[in-house]
Here is the input.
Amino acid sequence: MQEESLLTMRRIDKRFPGVLALNGVDFTLRKGEIHALMGENGAGKSTLIKVLTGVYQMDGGEIRVEGEKVSIHSPQDAQNAGISTVYQEITLCPNLTVAENMFIGRSRGAWVRQNKLEERADEILTKLGIPARSTQLLGSCSLAVQQMVAIARAVDMQCKVLILDEPTSSLDDKEVKQLFDLMRDLKKQDVGIIFVTHFLDQVYEVSDRITVLRNGELVGEYLTEELPQLQLVSKMIGKELEELSNLGDSEEEKIMQPEVFYEAEGLSSTEALPFDFSIRKGEVNGFTGLLGSGRSESVRAIFGADKVTGGTVKINGKPVKIQRPIDAMKHGIGYLAEDRKRDGIIAELSVRENIILALQVMNGMWRPISRSESESFADEYIKVLNIKTASRETPVGSLSGGNQQKVILARWLLTHPDYLILDEPTRGIDVGTKLEIQKLVLKLAEEGVSVTFISSEVEEMLRTCSRLIVMRDRHAVGELTGKDLNQTQVMKTIAGGES
Amino acid sequence: MKKLAFLKRKEPLNDTQLLMTITIVIFFVMYLSAVLLLGGGFLHPQQIFDMLNDNASLIIVSCGLTIVMIGGGIDISVGAVTSLVVMSCVLYLNKGGNIFVSLLLALGIGLAFGLVHGFLVSYLEIQPFIVTLAGLFFARGMTTILSVNPQKVQHTAFNNLRAKKIEISWLGYRAKNGTLVPARIELGVVAALFCVILVWILLKYIRLGRNFYAIGGNQQSALMLGINVKRTRFMSYVLSGLLSGLAGYVFMMHTGAGNATNAAGMEMNAIASSIIGGTLLTGGVGNVIGTFFGTLSLTTIKKIVVSSGLNDPWWQSITTGGMLCFFILLQSVVLGRRQKKAKT
Here is the structure.
């Protein structure tokens, strides 16, 4: 491997009102290496990336590309310096064609020659094996393909530094592999890749070096092969994590209360095919399956989040009608939605206002929660869930992902639900908070709350759930309990083969 | 074989093209039914030319508004700016001004409004609705300050120019006394068609035009793709202002007089035209050809209403409202079905 440094960031500072988001962070990227940037949410990874790409202006420090000092004030500056970024959220325009998305903002001259662009785009797409046509509208492609188009764009820009910010979170295994092949290809062409992800396995599969950040400070830079996974996790969290490996072992035998809390027969919605489902009091179960297998759609039907089209539902043995979320809430069901930004937080409102939201809705508009009451609720849950926020009046949007998630959890806990549906509660949040949420789920179950838990990480579900419903192609294809609850069995059922 | 390639659609119609196609089809259906139900008057070429003569300035203004709306903004000052331009130019000409300078004056006033709007909206990030609402009041107020009373153009050279019309004799008709009355097209219509074509080229083949779609589609993405979002948005208001200026001049060519209530409600008609033509208020989708047919549809329905004997002015408003509602419903149904299809 070449040791020549491609990008150096020295003593980078970035302050936000009340927070020092980056405190003298150093980062070095060499030519032709894949460098994983790790850290919990709120550790400063995203901030560092945004400083590098010109979204934020740094307050101190310097950035050099190939030894030359560069000043980056806008995404364009970053592009000119040879730094390209592919963000977790697709940052392309859905109303333009694939070809245009690859070339817009780059060409000079007033005229756009669509045909020429399309030809070139097709060439690149074929070369990289991306299943898209250049003339297709981007919005008509799958998320994974959109992501690859974004990478194709970056690749074609002859970038020296490619930043992949959580690129794999919406891809399935095959696509991840494709992406990694692409990354290794680029590596050979001396491109330096900064890889930000929450998937530890992927870090070990593809990266050469790891830089760990914590609380806006540099913890250290390590060669991947010299840093065992458990040690990496403890460096990210900042404490020895015996609990991490211990949790779960004690979950072998879960005592189950016998009564069924919720029962659905032939429940279907505009998005979900008819399915049967039931959950006992104090039970933790899970839906698993690949992305798009219908797991989220099923729980959304339970909550009435999509239009319910059929089926009967019983709660505590009595038939009820759940057509809208408010019906579900009145029957003691809470639902933490998959997409935190879209269906969860209201970014401009304060932590306090976000927390009391569900309770206020249930009370109705004629019984407002008094200020002092809401303040005490907020303070209580900030403490119980250990939410890291400057104050209860801080806008939720300025919190890190994990803390935002805790705020939404607090919102539902405040309504004292009998049945809580958590759809991907740990997506995109740090290991420490993940663990806290898993523990919380188990604690709730002990108190007799039924929980449905959905996660992309099978391991996490095995640790918390006592029953797993496996979905494939929008059908439930298996239900695993007891001894069958292990990774191989889950994989087998998802894959649908016998071996 | 290669020559035929453009005939074969590689892709299904995109949203913009679909909405535009719907508008064009509905326009022709509407016009045809007008011919069938209300008879010969609508068959006359002059009828179509009159629609264009009367609405040339509206078409120009709508072109500008379409640009702004594709970029995700709105400009409700266009009618008031048009009115101010008319009044300023009339007064200037009546003081013995030069025709060419009066045209520059018109464009200059429009440009000035565009620059200020663009600056406030893009660089100071003030809501476009508020900014252009302020512009609307300002321009209306200025118009009244210039003259409360209607002013007729007394400029001989200008009136000669105004009287110039393109006459097409073979499209004309024989009056009752047997003389041939040729079809007449005003110069303003030429300007309007010219604008439509220019804006169409801009939006389809020019980098700036494509950038309008990008910022309207997803502003954040556009920024990340390296587009200068602020400058692009700024340009959309500048173009809208400039076209309002031109529209004012065309308006004056058509009416030959300035009046404080000139072009009242034109901004609303322009918004309606754009929307009927398939431009979405949310930005990123739209087409100026659609807008052109949107204006024609709007005019046709008004003509139909008048021809059916409903002469009171409110009937036109009511039908305009109904039609706008119909189109918006139709669009949301069509786009909604599409999204559903795309999902499965």
